[in-house]
Amino acid sequence: MMIKIFTFAIAVCINVQVFAQTNDYSIREVKSGLYIPWEMVSAPDGSIWFTQRHGAISRLNPVTGEMKQLIFEQDVSINNGEGGMLGLALHPDFPNTPEVFCSYNYLLNGNDYREKLVVYEYNPVTDVLAFKRLIKDGIEANVIHNGSRLLISNNKLYMTTGDANDLSFPQNTASLNGKILRYNLDGSIPSDNPIPGSAVWSFGHRNPQGLAMMGTKLVSSEHGPSNDDEINIIEAGRNYGWPNVEGYCNLPAEATFCTSNNVYEPAKSWTPTIAVCGIEFYTHPLFPQWKNKLLLASLKNQALYVLTFNADQNTVISQVDIPEVSFGRIRDVLAAPNGKIYVSTSNSNNVNNKIDKIYEIYDPTPTSLDTGETISSKNNWVASPIPSNNTITIQNKLNHGAAEIDLVDISGKLIKQVHFQGKQMQIDISSLAAGFYYLKIKEKGSVSQVLKIQKL
């Protein structure tokens, strides 16, 4: 059910927000009037920084909806295709090192469409971004198949590039197209890259538009042609097959090529395609049903999917979509440090048709639980397994001693109360109706944490 409510934002005019209510999460419209927000990242102050394809990098307050454009890059060319201002990443020590990494498309010599990777510097006094240095330019581009996602992990910068609609590029390791690239943060080539002096980390890609860390593993999502969209586990120096292999190595010619060329088969392949896009590995306890699973934005199927991997994290074993998340084409997904999830849409068909939005998925924990976000994020207590049919094991990682645990339903009604002593105990939930419940942990008379559980 969709309803509109009106709420006052601090020191701004009335802000219209749209909510969808389910029994375990709610959805709120944060910002509208955007032109294809391509990539979103979280800043240390809780704001969201994001690119729009026409050339803007902006900062969004997800609480009030207030937005500030930090730069509009005049060098950007959208070329009426898939290009424009695309990938975005903040320096891991931001704001102490206020560097912002970005990839975008431009016209070289006025007519040659290319892609570049640059660094901007944020000035907190003027509250703007300014160009600082170039990492790489001249990467081939086209109206389609440009990548491009950025990700920083372990002080290394990863960038996806598409094949620029040229099948000769992906298998050619001298080309930077159809690749995942890896740089040091200063723009130099890491000494442990698989090809000395080259930024190429993996090759044989068609058009990867999602990039995330899943624990210690690098994961990408990749558009197939009319078949075989892919989720890939990325390893250094590995070949991912395109254009000789589409999806799995399941045809005779593909099997021969895969054996001869060290091809890494996808963890998941979709035929027909769903138009995979942004991905995010969710690790926060706010939504335990999605914890340690991969969130995937879909353009064609207009959905946000939850992918479960096997124990070795090399194969997707199940896929479900999150109901109510159906706002048209979904371009990106972001998991904020507080556990809230943000999705951006990709419905605008030109720069003058700014109909795209950013939505927030949040936990509608009843106020009657008497706890706040800061307290509940302490994570000193854990509950498992979630979901469960019969029993939930409660563990106190700090072993502080006694506690009272209230089991309450979604409305805050008390179901049962148990006394906790020691390091862990089990709570029988077999008689409960299927749904979501909360365990309210009380230590020394005060609520110290709230855990959400699910009864199947």
UniProtKB/TrEMBL annotation:
Keyword terms, alphabetized: Signal
Keyword Signal: yes
SUPFAM superfamilies: Soluble quinoprotein glucose dehydrogenase (SSF50952)
Secretion system C-terminal sorting domain mapped to chain residues: 385-447
Signal peptide: 1-20
Domain spans labelled Glucose/Sorbosone dehydrogenase: 36-349
Listed Gene3D superfamilies: TolB, C-terminal domain
Protein name in UniProt: PQQ-dependent sugar dehydrogenase
Protein species of origin: Chryseobacterium endalhagicum
